[in-house]
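Fold it.
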Amino acid sequence: MCARIRPGRQGTAGAVAAWRDTPFFSDEERAALALAKAATQVPDNPDGVPDAVWEAAADHYDEEAPAALVMAIAAINAWNRINITLRNAPA
């Protein structure tokens, strides 16, 4: 999921914001996007990522992949916070 777009899927990057409403993403990709959303929107999830979201990610990935997804989500969120703080405009 992280910055890799499979051949023939280049047009899907623009659809990420509407990932739930488009047919472009696999169940595996949707699980990763749901995990990213739940981990990023902390005010919406004060008790942490809901069990159903974590279980969906775990169902679609091997034992190590959810941890790698969490680290990627955390890194992206950290860079977003740094850029917001420094008022850097999106590229």
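The longest helix spans residues 65-85.
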